[in-house]
Amino acid sequence: MTMSGQLAFWILAALSVAGAATVVFGRDVTRMVLGLGAFLLSVAGWFLFFGQTFLAVAQVFVYVGGVLVLVLFAIMLVHRAEGADPALTSRHDVDIAAVALSVFGIMVVSLRSAWPSMTEGPVPTSTTQVSAQFLGAYLPHLEAAGLLLLAALVAAIVIMGGEGE
Amino acid sequence: MNFVILACALFALGLYGVMSRRDIIGVLASVEVMLGSGTVLLVGLSSSMTAASGVRPDPGALGAIGVLIIVVAAAEAAVGLAVLVSVARILHTTQVDGLMEVKG
What we know:
The complex is a heterodimer of chains A (about 160) and B (about 100). With about 160 residues, chain A is mainly alpha-helical.
């Protein structure tokens, strides 16, 4: 890995860890959403780092532009309906930390076998390659994804509209 | 390969958040962290596989699979947030400890 690649790696690592830590440990709702935004942006950065330009743009559009705004709307709606204190509560426990650490250990040990077969630099991917896959081998998956989005949209409307009586 | 350890650590951090957060919004945000780190792990591992071993996937296919993961995660977020708002309106709480009934 080149010097600039290493620099990008550590910047992305710091951004994603800081964002994820804010999401998990932050007490203020607004800060938690900001941390989530930083984490999602860092994920887009990781996609760029691995040469997946189209994925990075989709991540920014869908997550940072869509899901994050949706989360903000939900928080505003909830706190308007609930009138509650915006502070987040959590129960930090040694047992929970032990479970999370165990999962981390299992993942690292099980993925260790894949490490030696890695190269240094990923191949950059163009949008043409992705769209060729979507219109070729992955066409049924694309249709299924469209159906899933439609189902999620209908489900969200039904869930939101089913209350109030 | 440091990014494998990093992505696993982020996944474990998200898992810790899912189990320790008392607010539904915190749980949902932690799930997003888990999903994001899992996607980073998938994309990173797949795009770093060597061509010599014969297991290197087509980068275009990897992009397509990544987009599908993003679509599924977005659908999950939409339904999850709808449930959050609905629960907050009906039960007047967003604490997971307050959700003791399946039938609201």
